[in-house]
Queue: 3 jobs
Job 1
Amino acid sequence: MVTGKRNYILLSIFDFLYLFAWSSTMAFFVIWTTQHLGISATQTGWLYAINAFIALTMQPFFGFISDKFGTKKSLIFWIIALLLPVGPFFIYVYAPLLVSSFWLGAILGGIYLGVIFNSGCGVIDSYIDKISRRYAFEYGRVRMWGSLGWAAAAYIVGRNINDNPNLSFWLASIAIVLAGICFMMTKITVTLEEEKMTSSLKAGHVFELMKDKQFWMLIIFTLFVTQIYDTYDQQFAQYFSLQFPSVDEGNKWYGTLASIQVCGETLFLGLMPWFVNRVGAKWALVIAGTIMSVRILGSAVPLGPVWIAAVKMMHAIEKPLILISVFKFIAQNFDHKLSSTIYLLVLFAASIATTVYSPMVGHFYDTIGFANTYIILGVISGLFTLFSAFSLRSRKDKVIDHAQNTASLA
């Protein structure tokens, strides 16, 4: 089998299993904490904030180290090793501590989840992006299998969380064992040119990046568009379940809806590289921001569960747009040897925003309600999307053409 095709297949399975594990543990996190552990929306907001705060202390370091490793496998293997006990951690450590000693559990969980998911996802995504450019396949067409893994886990967990919430955590650990096996089977050659590039990377290159206006414009988009949206989405499952006569019924329907939505996301992840290459990364980001703002505001309209479900399905278009266009925007506007650093710095900014937004928005949910909070968030997101339409740079001509890299397939 040609090396590029082999790596595409194995990394697709790996991403499927990694996102399966992440979804198993976090897709119903708010339902697990509020309905099974008896934690309030405000406390759950603090959990998201603490997870994000601890992650943000790690992300710049992870980004730089990831670029220093390049396409070497060592850092990914380290993340896999930490992921293996994720199931027992949730069942025997995290849950008891959150109930008996909330702040201790929140800090310990924040450290662990910050490494394996909040920071680890950035390392894994940027690594797959590097390999896709090396072996001439699109990152988005690997990531679509990851979304399918998320959908599969959401469906299974949604059907079982009321009766057996611990099942999801055991499934997560099993998925990581299989993911590790798949990653071991990849064949990735580190070239002499890459060795030189990674060895020449210095901390000073990161400080030079701070002088680039486009870097800050991307950070502003992240802070006031994508993270406003992600904060809105954190407790959406709880809001959706409240649209039904009982929360148990709402949880089951949310599991089904989340699975359908992520299947749609998978389809669009396969199509979006073509679309982003045509319109350019800047305008893809703006379009994604517009969809996000419309979805947030649409959720505030009290038209019942069918309407809320329809609004939820907009995520199937927005998420692929963001995932693909962020990497392409970075590739178009910055030095490739800093690609992981830039992406993790974007996640660093996102973590800062989540740390600030989550407890505040969680408090708003408890005091002024979901709908009024959504109106505030939607207006902020919409205004900064408009700002980004003028501030982000359009360099459509710089989009990487993977078809020109076929020599690297051998």
Job 2
Amino acid sequence: METAASAAHPRITLDPNICHGQPTVRGLRYPVQNVLEYLASGMTEAEILADYPDLEAEDLRACQAYAA
């Protein structure tokens, strides 16, 4: 049962069957924590999007907003 983490963050979803219930991006197997770690390590938005073509620029911003 996939649900949005909140109305303010509709791109961030929670599903106990995906990534052990961690917040993920749009129900994909990209945990928010991993995306934040990529950004914190210095990867640029373009590098992340090139390495992970399922992600969109808005997904990266949604992860940052969710963490805030």
Job 3
Amino acid sequence: MNPAILTAAHRSLAFGTKVKVTNRNNGRTVVVRINDRGPFIRGRVIDLSRAAAQNIGMVSSGTAKVCYQVIG
């Protein structure tokens, strides 16, 4: 996974799927493309690249409660 582009990892969504991810703490959103498998830590549903995490303001916290919606 390239940390400089807007990508994410998900356990079951098809590669290439576009997903809108919203940070529930601040309402900021980003659209990412699934290009990897994961996360493999219990309780986590999606891993964002650093660029995507930065866009929704969660780099400093490392994790955040998010909502996601498949858009294509």
